[in-house]
Amino acid sequence: MRKLLVISVFLLALANASAVRAQNMHLATNLLDYANFGTINAEFGLSPSPKWSFYIKGRYNPFTFHINGQKQNRVASCAVGSKYWFWYSNSGWFINSNIVYSIYNTGGIIDEYAYEGDSYGLSVGGGYALMLNKRWNLDFGFGVQGGFANYTMYACPRCGKVEKNGNRFYVVPGALMIQLSRIL
What we know:
Helix content is about 10%, strand content about 65%. It has two helices and nine strands; from the N terminus they run H-E-H-E-E-E-E-E-E-E-E.
């Protein structure tokens, strides 16, 4: 149901975007995500007006590493959001918000426990888009994410011994980005 809501909001934004031309779209990737155990990510956005842009982004990490024990930060995540640009879309300062849904399985990184579950929430943030040339930007940003997580905590990433199940509210730093964008 939540996935349907996310997709519906994005499609509604697309339907209301009159006169969408190629120069109002962008493709981007967050370079910092690759440092997070090789998380693959992409963002597609469009700007229906000079001050607003809408985007959908995805993150995926299927990798498990065996360095001093098993370490993993596996995630599949989708976010739909908007940015308000103070100068002009895809250039200068911006503020943004998005809704996020994630499925995760992480463990052995900070402590010996492993966590598996799903989460959904809202992220708000801001940043600056540095224009490198007519078609390329380097975006810097930071945000805060809050929401609800359903989780299972395991004694270790490999053993499968359940320590605890539960739901919790969370607030974490989110949307830390150094993003390379290609304006189409």
